[in-house]
Design brief:
The structure holds two protein chains of two kinds.
Chain A lengths: L1 H33 L2 E3 L5 E3 L9 H5 L8 E6 L4 E4 L3 H9 L8 E4 L5 E9 L4 E8 H5 L1 H44 L16 H66 L4 H29 L8 H16 L2 E6 L7 H20 L5 E8 L3 E8 L10 H6 L3 H12 L3 E7 L2 E9 L3
Parallel strand pairs in A: 8-9
Antiparallel strand pairs in A: 1-2, 3-4, 3-7, 5-6, 6-7, 9-10, 10-12, 11-12
Chain B lengths: L2 E6 L3 H13 L3 E7 L2 H11 L3 E4 L8 H11 L4 E6 L4 H9 L4 E4 L4 H12 L4 E2 L20 H11 L4 H8 L3 H15 L4 H10 L5 H5 L1
The chains are: A alpha+beta, B alpha/beta.
Chain lengths: 436, 212
């Protein structure tokens, strides 16, 4: 576009210069023609004094020519008779092969382009040569014209440069980033930390993604540890149950067998036999007691009686087992789904165990309320307290499962657990929202 | 001559029952009974009895560790494991730590007495319940095991893999498997551990050969 515009402009300029210079030459020739001329003794033509006394050829031409352009008048032998200030240059031009009446464009000795035209003065054996450089004729316009393509070129270059910079600083880094992220395994990989060639915004984007990737990895690690921990807890639980059965009922049954075998050797003494039978009975009873204990520990059957009763039973057992005073402030609550009752129960059990075993509490108060829109269970102790971490889940990973377990139990059934602790004691509050 | 015995079992009812068994035998002399491993160790050091009846699971030092302690200390007491665990790996662990026998707590009086007499003589006794592939009664005599089969069994007992045994004996791994299958068949064993225990029981290999 720029180029076409430029060419058109050039063409217009050329034709303008051509007609201008043609007019100039023809006009000058006409002037000279109309003059009366005398041939001077030295062989030179001299316009008659009558018209312009004391004025030579220059009087005809140069005098009232405030217009741009240059003239030269030659005789038939190519000798310069008159020349305007630029005339020496014209002599060079005159040597060029020029066609009469047809303007042509020639590069002058000064480097400028000149449009020249050539006209004869009728009956005088004189020739007029008129020339005008486009610079003279159009002045600043020309400068603009020459500057124009340069400017367009510059703009083009700037454009290309801008595209290049954009490519290098935006498109490529974006592409790299996209590729990297599409191959990225979240929770395993971390993208390159920085791309120095990219623009700041992209670097920031990358940094943000790196942060995300880090947190994804942290999460994955936490999750993995979490699962590992759950499996571990399961196994520990199984091995605990296995041990309980081994150390309890299994031994008792063995003892019963032993007594029965001993009984078989004691047929001679009814007294001894009675003694063996009593021993066997006692061993069997012990076995039953221990198996009942194992069952109770697995799933307390008295949960069926309702939460308040279950908590009463729990506190009696723990009071006997842990030697800790437990105050109960239990109100009847509506019938709850089994899993909710179980969750409340386990939290209370764990909380009391913690208070007794870790907080050195002397006294515990368990309160239970049905507030209509929610059930609230509170376990307060007078123990030494502890620092409650911001994220209770992290405790599990560090091996302190109690709190984390309690929280999970509650959240599993849609409840909420809040813990507040000070050196004067700990309050564990469970809230279970319910539709009224 | 009576046999001096100490009894280590943390469960009072079974300990009492065991003691009831032992007092039935006139030549058994129970010199001490203990409810945990540490007390039992002290008793063994004090009385140096001929036989120590050891429960595997006990508070303090467990039975297996106690058997090893006895062996390492050079006290001539024979350890007889008396436990509720019938896992063959437990049996092997006990034997490796120096126990001379393994009896389940549910064993009857005759079995226990027999086991005690055997280990007191320096013999080796294994409860039929932990290697129960064949009936002990009825005088089962396994088909003789070839020299090569015996070699394979001993190497397998040391924990070598089929490949390692093959390399050591310059035979193919397949041949090793064939030998092992033949041993299992002859002894009536279901696996390697049982084959080891049964070969001990039938005197095909000695305890020293097996655990060294």
């Amino acid at each position: 576009m720029a180029w076409v515009g430029f060419c058109q402009f050039e063409k217009t300029m050329d034709s303008l210069a051509s007609s201008y210079v043609q007019n100039l030459a023809r006009g000058a020739a006409a002037r000279l023609e109309s003059a009366r001329w005398d041939l001077k003794p030295d062989g030179m033509w001299q316009p008659r004094q009558k018209y312009r006394p004391g004025v030579g050829i220059e009087g005809f031409i140069a005098e009232d020519l405030p217009i741009p352009g240059t003239f030269a008048v030659f005789d038939e032998f190519g000798l310069l008779l008159y020349g305007s200030p630029n005339a020496p240059m014209m002599s060079v031009l005159s040597n060029q092969l020029l066609t009469y009446g047809v303007p042509s464009k020639i590069r002058g000795a000064d480097g400028n382009y000149y449009t020249i035209a050539f006209y004869p003065v009728l009956n005088k054996n004189l020739f007029v040569l008129a020339a005008v450089s486009s610079k003279e004729l159009l002045g600043p316009m020309v400068t603009l014209t020459t500057f124009w393509p340069f400017m367009v070129g510059m703009l083009g270059l700037i454009g290309i440069f801008a595209v290049f910079i954009m490519w290098q600083k935006v498109i490529m880094p974006l592409k790299d980033l996209e590729e990297e992220i599409s191959l990225l395994k979240w929770g395993e990989d971390i993208p390159q930390k920085n791309a120095p060639e990219a623009v700041t915004e992209l670097q920031k984007l990358r940094a943000a993604i790196v942060t995300l990737a880090h947190s994804a990895i942290d999460k994955a690690v936490l999750n993995r540890r979490y699962v590992t921990d759950i499996v571990k807890v399961q196994e520990e639980e199984r091995s605990r149950i296995s041990r309980e059965i081994h150390d309890g009922p299994l031994q008792d049954v063995t003892a019963v067998i032993q007594r029965l075998r001993l009984l078989a050797t004691d047929f001679d003494s009814p007294e001894k036999m009675r003694q063996r039978l009593t021993e066997a009975e006692n061993a069997a009873l012990a076995g039953v007691r221990e198996m009942r204990e194992v069952c109770n520990n697995l799933t307390p059957p008295w949960l069926d009686l309702g939460l308040a009763q279950a908590l009463t039973e729990l506190s009696e057992r723990q009071n006997a087992q842990l030697g800790i005073k437990i105050n109960l402030d239990l109100h009847e609550v509506r019938e709850l789904p089994n899993d909710v009752t179980m969750a409340f129960f386990r939290v209370a059990q764990e909380a009391v165990n913690n208070s007794a075993n870790h907080a050195n509490a002397k006294e515990i108060t368990i309160s239970l309320r049905d507030l209509g829109n929610k059930i609230v269970l509170k376990i307060e102790d007078d123990g030494k307290g502890f620092d409650v971490p911001e994220n209770i889940t992290e405790l599990r990973v560090k091996g302190h499962r109690g709190l984390s377990n309690m929280q999970e139990r509650m959240s599993l059934v849609g409840g909420k657990l809040t813990v507040s602790s000070s050196p004067k004691g700990t309050i564990i509050k469970c809230e279970m929202p319910l539709n009224t | 001559m009576s046999i001096s015995i100490i009894l280590a079992d943390d469960h009072p009812l079974t300990r009492e029952g065991m003691k009831g068994y032992l007092t039935k035998e006139s030549d058994f002399n129970v010199v001490g009974e203990y409810a945990d491993g540490d007390a039992a160790w002290a008793g063994i050091q004090k009385y140096k009895p001929q036989v120590a009846l050891l429960d595997i699971r006990m508070p303090g030092i467990d039975g297996v560790a106690l058997a090893r302690k006895i062996k390492e200390s050079g006290i001539p007491t024979a350890s007889l494991m008396l436990t509720s665990y019938d896992a063959q790996q437990y049996v092997m662990a006990s034997l490796r730590s120096g126990a001379r026998g393994y009896v389940l707590k549910t064993a009857d009086m005759e079995t226990l007495s027999k086991a005690i007499r055997i280990v007191a003589r320096g013999g080796f006794y294994l409860d039929s319940e932990v290697a129960s592939a064949v009936e002990e009664e009825g005088g089962f005599v396994p088909e003789p095991v070839s020299v090569r089969e015996r070699e394979v069994l001993l190497l397998a007992a040391r924990g070598l893999s089929g490949k390692e045994i093959a390399t050591q004996l310059f035979i193919s791994e397949r041949t090793v498997q064939t030998h092992l299958a033949s041993i299992y068949d002859k002894l009536g064993a279901k696996n390697k551990t049982e084959a080891m225990l049964l070969s001990l029981k039938y005197g095909i290999v000695t305890l020293e050969e097996l655990i060294n």
